[in-house]
């Protein structure tokens, strides 16, 4: 997906290669806020969690002005990392009496005997974005802008402590594509150098399970809804 986005960006830039247009580069530094709603299922037990996490974020963006009011952009963002802490409960199992052939059955005890396990899931998100910026002049030095595009996001490998033996379960990185949008302002200090402030939003949905990775009892599966907002300081240079 990232290669496709890059190919689209390069193709778009080539369409305007013969025109007299401005190229700009921007560095973004700020804070990402994760709002997570999660549903997890372990055996016959369901868990629902909602929480908010904050992390330092940064990004690099390149743009090409195609008119007075519109530009094409491609950007890479690191939305920081944070830990999601929650509790899972492992059912307790005992062996029953042997039958006539010496075989024994496993008996699951009442849920009141479940054992709690503190669990931590590191969350680290990156995205590559391709979109369009619209901008409008407020004063001679200040501009208002809005952005809309596609973000190809990727979660790094994450680990959680897996009951009942508190072992570590590892998941491969996950990726997808969703719509992002943002609003912001830029203030030119010189003809080329400017500072800005930007607020952006990206919604990510993710499903997971460990049924294909682990054999055994009490496997965990579920889904997460991530609403990632970024408030960033923008440092830019118009070439």
Give the integer mean of the pLDDT values: 78
Tell me the fraction of residues in β-strands, as a range: over 45%
CATH topology: Porin
What is the makeup of the main sheet? 8 strands, antiparallel, barrel
How many helices? The count is 1
CATH class: Mainly Beta
What's the arrangement of strands in the largest beta sheet? 1-2-3-6-7-10-11-12
The SS-based structural class is: mainly beta
Order of helices and strands: HEEEEEEEEEEEE
How many domains? The number is 1
How far from one another are the termini? 29 Å
Gross morphology: rod-shaped
Percent helix, as a range, is under 10%
Low-confidence segments, ≥5 residues, pLDDT <50?
15-19, 212-218
* Cα radius of gyration in angstroms: 24 Å
DSSP summary, beta strand count: 12
Question: What is the second-level CATH architecture?
Answer: Beta Barrel
Signal peptide: 1-19
Pfam family, one: OMP_b-brl
Organism: Saccharobesus litoralis
Domain Outer membrane protein beta-barrel: 17-211
